[in-house]
Amino acid sequence: MNDRPKADVIEKIRKILSKTEEAGCTTEESQAAFQMASRIMAEHNLDMAEIESGEGGEQSWLEDDVLETGRWSLEQNCAYGIASEFFFVKGIFGYKHSSARQRRVLRFFGRPNNVASAKWVFGALLDAFDRLFAEYRRQHGAPASDRRLFVTGVAGGFREKMKDERRAVEVERDLVQGKTSGSTALALRSVMDETTEEFERTHKTKTARSNFATVSGSQSAFDAGHNAGRKLELRRAIGDSGRKGITGQS
């Protein structure tokens, strides 16, 4: 975090995000504003939950339900891997009991802003997997059996994109702040280390983790998914807590 008070950074981001088409800006101006705000949020490890509230300061730890699930799917595993890697959360399975049945529940642990962001990204990715594969099938007449390989490609492509964008942010921030190369990367890594340490201190159960057999199928399905993942963008509007705002091209 730089020397500016956190509240000032949040206020700056809110002003940038106010540049919307509804406010009279062009589509290009609105998109440029969103990209600028996203970059600043990534630099300062801020999430929409904090931007919406306008509050800064120290945050406590939070554990929140993400979804109820029976059998843990490949899609869920891919979405969880990305959410935990880039949004500083740990996953854990719990259980909900009812008179009819017991349901397994995935929960995210972390700082409240990171948990809120990871939950949204997790849901948005599940929706994107469905939508992108449906588009791929319509365009190419692909069989349903290609889904697992296609989704694996989407997840891999999107993860590569996230890594590239994070590296760009790290380099830019180090240059702007005159820091030694790699300083921002170390700072981000310390956030995950802190989360892991607190999680292990307060939880004795295992984190959410599943192993899947090697996915096989058409190489073209994987390549198409990978290409779609590289192009996939997630758009979360102010006040949006659902799975909307997903854009992408196959």
Helical/strand content category: mainly alpha
Summed over residues and divided by their number, the pLDDT gives a mean of 79
| Total separate domains | 2
* Beta-strand residue percentage: 5-15%
Distance between the termini: 37 Å
Biggest sheet overview: 3 strands, antiparallel
Tally of contiguous helical segments: 8
Low-confidence stretches: 54-58, 237-250
Helix percentage range: 55-70%
Q: How many strand units?
A: 5
Order of helices and strands: HHHEHEEHHHHEE
Rg from alpha-carbon coordinates: 19 Å
Bulk shape? globular
Strand order of the largest sheet: 1-3-2
List the topology elements.
Blueprint: H1 6-17, H2 27-43, H3 48-53, E1 62-69, H4 74-86, E2 90-97, E3 102-110, H5 112-140, H6 147-176, H7 183-202, H8 219-231, E4 233-234, E5 246-247
Helix pairs in contact: 1-2, 4-5, 4-6, 6-8
Question: Can you describe what's shown?
Answer:
- This protein is mainly α.
- It folds into two domains: 1-58, no CATH class; 59-247, no CATH class.
- Helices cover 56% and strands 12% of the residues.
- The protein contains eight helices and five strands, in the order H-H-H-E-H-E-E-H-H-H-H-E-E.
- It has helices at residues 6-17, 27-43, 48-53, 74-86, 112-140, 147-176, 183-202, 219-231, and strands at 62-69, 90-97, 102-110, 233-234, 246-247.
- A three-stranded antiparallel beta sheet has the order 1-3-2. Strands 4-5 form a two-stranded antiparallel ribbon.
- Strand 2 (90-97) and strand 3 (102-110) form a beta hairpin.
- The chain is globular and about 50 Å long.
